[in-house]
Amino acid sequence: MPRQTAVLVVLVAMDLWPGALSAQSVAATAVPEPASWGVEPTRLFLAPTARSVPRGQGSFGLTEIAFPWVEVGLLDRISVRTFVTPPLEDLTNAGIVVGPKLQLVRQSHIQAAIGVFQQLGSGWGGVGYGVVTIGGRDTSATIGLGYGYGEVVDSGGSKAVVFVGAEKAIGRRARLVLEGYLGGEAFGLPERTLMAGTRVNFGRWSLDLGAVMPFYQTGSGTPFPIASLGRAF
């Protein structure tokens, strides 16, 4: 497994990236969601959106085979995501990442949230972030800023990372997903990272398939795949 995949999965814990449900509405009043909405509108591939998980609902899944995760809505605007990082050679710190998120703004076409991904186990540190999502159920854009602290930022370079993303429904069961990162060298990330692919939904199940393209000061790196399987409950 490329080291970039492991670093991205750990830091963006993948809701800084990995889920809410097909029944969730981003509007202040509940409206039916199309099947294309998917089981995980609270994330892009890995980076979080500003959407919230409804109280008592959630999702679980597996990213890149080795990284299981679960997310639960404690209140309508407060959710917690937990991600397990097994002891792999690619990872400098293995353990558990806990990611509470608080939604501050929830309007029909704009949401805003703050959160943190705190690493537990071997090593202490994490990433705090703020994120805004603009748009409707079928087309939306997300922009956020994260800042690392503790042992997570054990490399030279910027401790801050800007993440952006976009979603576009194509039919009722599929969505195009774009995601990008600028900065975060202190996390071990490239200077720039681009992800692109699709999310396909089958009832409560969703399957993400995409490609990760790292870019360094010396040029572009070798693209590699990313995959995630999730289920709402």
Summarize the structure in words:
By secondary structure, the chain is mainly β. It has one domain (3-232): Porin. It contains one helix and 13 strands. The chain has one helix at residues 3-11, and strands at residues 58-63, 67-75, 78-85, 95-106, 110-121, 125-135, 139-150, 160-169, 174-183, 192-202, 205-216, 219-220, 224-232. Strands 1-2-3-4-5-6-7-8-9-10-11-13 form a twelve-stranded antiparallel β-barrel. The longest helix has 9 residues, at 3-11. Residues 4-40 have low confidence and may be disordered.
Topology overview:
Elements: H1 3-11, E1 58-63, E2 67-75, E3 78-85, E4 95-106, E5 110-121, E6 125-135, E7 139-150, E8 160-169, E9 174-183, E10 192-202, E11 205-216, E12 219-220, E13 224-232
Antiparallel strand pairs: 1-2, 1-13, 2-3, 3-4, 4-5, 5-6, 6-7, 7-8, 8-9, 9-10, 10-11, 11-12, 11-13
Return the CATH topology: Porin
> Topology as H/E string?
HEEEEEEEEEEEEE
Helix content: under 10%
Alpha carbon gap, first and last residue: 30 Å
Spatial ordering of strands, largest sheet: 1-2-3-4-5-6-7-8-9-10-11-13
Q: Which second-level CATH architecture applies?
A: Beta Barrel
Major β-sheet annotation: 12 strands, antiparallel, barrel
Strand fraction equals over 45%
Catalogue the unreliable spans: 4-40
Q: Which radius of gyration do the C-alpha atoms yield?
A: 16 Å
Mean model confidence by pLDDT: 82
Alpha-beta content class: mainly beta
Q: How many individual domains?
A: 1
How many helices? The count is 1
